[in-house]
Amino acid sequence: MAFQRNIYKGLEEWKNSGEHKPLVIRGARQVGKTTVIKDFGKTFDTFIQLNLEKSDNRTFFTDELNPKITFQKICLEKKIEPKGKTLLFLDEIQNSPQAIALLRYFYEEMPELYVISAGSLLEIIMEKHKISFPVGRVEYLYLYPMTFMEFLLAAGETQALSLLEEVPIQRWAVPSLSRLYKTYTLVGGMPEAVAKFINTGDITKVSSVYRNLFTSYIDDVAKYASNKTEEQILTQFIEAAPKETGKRITFERFANTSYRSRDAGEALRKLQRAMLIYLRYPTTDLQLPLQTDTKRKPRLQFLDTGLVNFSTGIQGTYLTEESIDSMYNGMIAEQITGQELLASTFYEMKPPLFWVREEVRSNAELDFLIIKDSKIIPVEVKSGKTGTLRSLHSYIDQTGTKLAVRLYSGEYSVEKAVTPIGKNPYTIINLPLFLAGKIGEYVSLIESR
């Protein structure tokens, strides 16, 4: 089942640009990279796909590095006569260092040819085998699990999607969209899981998809682990990471294991390069530019909320009246918010920062900082409208920020507020959790008023 994905906008921009360098699609295994490119290939006059996991497809690429001869060999073997705009898709390109090296020559000697490559473990495999992309000769786009808007489109919820796109949201639409968002948070954004749920309407039928996904991630470990010890560590961490999502973690004895900081840190960073987890580091800065403080404990974010729900065994919680922002001690709300914010752009992989103040007598921790039009927007994810905003107030008192956002299980509203010390008035935008991906639009709306 092919879904309409937001990354198509980036693909169309690339196709229509005057200078289309070879494009590299980055993303974790099973987020839909191959499906997206095959569907995009239909917009070309000629589409040629090679899977470089297959040895017979790798034989087209040699150390000769002659793009014209290579392309002629491909067309001859595949019995293809290219006409008009032609797209060459090199899937799982990490399996061929020669294909990676050839990308720059496609760009320099065959600028008329459109070339897209993709690979799930790209950075890790390239690092292991000391392969490098030609700097300045390729472009990148990133594909993540499906967003709420993509989920609604896939599920045929066109009316709900239209209501979601209205800014500001209509008050009467909030309960229905909140229920749909809860379903989306339960299922997650992995395309195979979404397709299974849409076809069956039964979350228990999706469990086999999650189980197979975890199995494939663990099977992949053997491809990029440096040795058997690291393979064991990585396997344990893939199984443990969903239970640590949303928490600030220490590398030393991560997830109650016995591994030392160096080994655990190296393994977690490797899983981040595989895009299975994201280490969201804090900043202590109060103004731009925001510097990532890698000496402080990061928060862990897993690839997808559906996988988190399955792994932690909390799927049944969604059948209760409990709101998302109170599930799993609030960690699910933070996970899905981080997931939506990360997927808000396909041009980069930049896990959103959070802010901390760590002092002997006074600590504060703000969930997210978003940069909008060269301004820092503080964002808190809170349980209920009456939830304490102590960390947010601490941040406002130190920065004088005049606009903040609270995500919660409630309605849209805008309030004038003041911090407890009474010196710093500010405006707070209260947004339902399902609007996490549209924070920028609401900030623009309020600022325009």
How would you characterize this protein structure?
The protein has 449 residues and is an alpha/beta fold. Among the domains are: 7-142, P-loop containing nucleotide triphosphate hydrolases (Rossmann fold); 354-448, no CATH class. Helices cover 39% and strands 18% of the residues. The chain has helices spanning 7-16, 33-40, 55-58, 67-78, 97-109, 122-128, 148-154, 158-165, 174-187, 191-200, 207-224, 228-240, 261-273, 305-312, 331-342, 390-399, 439-448, and strands spanning 23-26, 46-51, 86-91, 114-119, 139-142, 277-280, 282-283, 299-302, 353-358, 363-372, 375-381, 403-408, 413-418, 425-432. Strands 7-9-10-11-12-14-13 form a seven-stranded mixed β-sheet. α11 (207-224) runs antiparallel to α12 (228-240) and α11 packs across α14 (305-312). The model has no long low-confidence stretch (mean pLDDT 93).
Name the features:
alpha/beta, 7-stranded mixed β-sheet, 17 helices, globular
CATH fold group of the domain at 7-142 = Rossmann fold
Radius of gyration: 23 Å
Count of discrete alpha- or pi-helical segments spanning 4 or more residues? 17
Q: How do the strands of the widest beta sheet line up side by side?
A: 7-9-10-11-12-14-13
* Count of distinct strands: 14
Text of the CATH class of the domain at 7-142:
Alpha Beta
> Overall 3D geometry?
globular
Cα end-to-end separation? 43 Å
Give the biggest beta sheet. 7 strands, mixed
Mean pLDDT over the full residue set:
93
Structural class call reads alpha/beta
Helix percent band: 25-40%
